[in-house]
Write a structure and sequence with these properties.
It contains twelve helices and ten strands. With 301 residues, it is of the alpha+beta class.
């Protein structure tokens, strides 16, 4: 039976010789009529698709479980806890590429160059990767992750969103903790002003906003967003000011404005909202107002 598999599956790959290194997140089949092999991503194959594929083609599989396959089954399929690991705690770094078909193998190799040798990389969808890394991590600072993102984006002409997971004990609760982080990451990406880098610290205001009573959110809208609606640049400026530790020099450099311009904006913000920018008391309020603005903008789409 000759089907246009390439038209049916966007992740379809053709091989003239039998592939020797099988990736856990792909199905591999042998097409006897043309003496060739092909693969398709498991994420793209429904149960019904799999049934007819196995009827018309011969599935091939690896007899040796790779670390990536073991971790995939552990995280998604209620598999066994990975054994014989040289570490007891690990974190999951999530990468999402906005491009439709990023060069997977090249991206894996380039990304792993930033991490330790025992880091495991999983491709769980066409544009989604996971990095499993020991607690003794190679990268911990936000600035280092931003540098990684910019390097990959420049070298491969792709756009990336990254979530830095927390380190957890590798036990039965690990998959549910990972799934919780994956859900948070997914929710953040729906906001209009999605960031390149996320961690629990950066998404906390979003999570807090989602749990707040409507009356408090309405108060923030009335007292901050509406008075600033003609000059939202003030809110963005103050948010950046807090992010850079109330440092005038660093904030001015980040925003590419003169110190006097920054001081004017800070004074104007305080005059309009009655929120002091001279200490961190108003930081949470400013962050919540910023994310509430994004939420309201999304609701208007």
């Amino acid at each position: 039976m000759n089907l246009n598999l390439k038209a049916l599956f966007s992740t379809y790959r053709h091989y003239r010789t039998k592939p020797t290194e099988l990736v856990y997140d792909f199905y591999y089949f042998y097409h006897q009529q043309v003496n060739a092999w092909f693969s398709v991503s498991k994420q793209e194959v429904s149960q019904r698709d799999y049934q007819w594929l196995t009827v018309f083609y011969t599935e091939i599989s690896s007899t040796v479980s790779q670390p990536s396959e073991i971790w995939y089954e552990f995280l998604y399929l209620n598999g066994d806890i990975p054994s014989k690991l040289p570490y007891s705690k690990a974190r999951v770094i999530q990468l999402i590429f906005l491009n439709d078909n990023p060069p997977a193998e090249e991206l894996k190799e380039a990304t792993l160059n930033f991490f330790k040798q025992d880091t495991v990389v999983l491709q769980v969808a066409t544009n989604r990767f996971l990095l499993i890394e020991a607690m003794d991590s190679s990268i911990n600072k936000k600035e280092d992750f931003i540098a990684l993102i910019r390097t990959i984006e420049t070298d491969f002409f792709v756009q990336i969103h990254l979530y830095q997971g927390e380190a957890y004990e590798i036990n039965k609760q690990f998959p549910s903790k990972f799934q919780r982080e994956a859900q948070w990451f997914e929710e953040c990406l729906h906001y209009k002003n999605a960031e390149q880098f996320y961690s629990f610290e950066t998404i906390f205001p979003i999570l807090l906003t989602q749990q707040m009573p409507a009356s408090i959110l309405k108060f923030i809208e009335e007292q901050i967003l509406i008075p600033l609606q003609s000059d939202m640049e003030l809110l963005d400026t103050v948010k950046t000011f807090y992010e850079y530790g109330l440092n005038i020099s660093l904030t001015s450099k980040k925003l590419h404005i003169h110190r006097n311009t920054l001081n004017y904006r800070l004074a104007k913000f305080q005059e309009t909202t009655n929120i002091s920018t001279k200490n961190l008391d108003g930081a949470i309020l400013v962050y919540i107002a910023s994310f509430l603005r994004s939420k309201l903008q999304n609701a208007q789409k």
